[in-house]
Amino acid sequence: MHKMIFVNLPVADLDASREFFGKMGYTFDDRFTDENAAAMVLGETIVAMLLRRDFYQSFVPTKQIIDATTTSGAILCLSAESREEVDGIVSKALEAGATAGDVEDHGFMYGSSFYDLDGHGWEIMWMDPAAVETGPEAYAAQQQAQ
């Protein structure tokens, strides 16, 4: 199976994107960062490659790159250890210039979202470990039976 994930995102201003995500506390792997790309470390095995739009285009020469401020192509969902961590990460994003997204609270699962400088949707989500273990539907049924 796969060992790592690299998500490639087109960005209009690479320096502004680095500054934005740096304010949120993310770091960059300089080994894979240059004037065209920045490797943002999201976890031990998760990397978001922020790519200048013209460089991104070189990977998909026959396709149009979406404008994520008007069209959704993907939602990037990252896990958090607690509800408080969800709120903390999203607060940092908003303070750094993000646009607020939706908040979802299902009791056993809590998420909040934001849109980065280029309009890419990011969701930060926490799920009660017991719900992860048994599955959301079984967990909800157990909670209702109590």
UniProtKB/TrEMBL annotation:
SUPFAM superfamilies in the cross-refs: Glyoxalase/Bleomycin resistance protein/Dihydroxybiphenyl dioxygenase
Biological source species: Gordonia sihwensis NBRC 108236
Stored PROSITE patterns: VOC (PS51819)
Pfam families per the UniProt record, alphabetical: Ble-like_N
Ranges for domain VOC: 3-127
Protein name (record): VOC domain-containing protein
InterPro entries reported in the protein's UniProt record: Glyas_Bleomycin-R_OHBP_Dase, Glyoxy/Ble-like_N, VOC_core
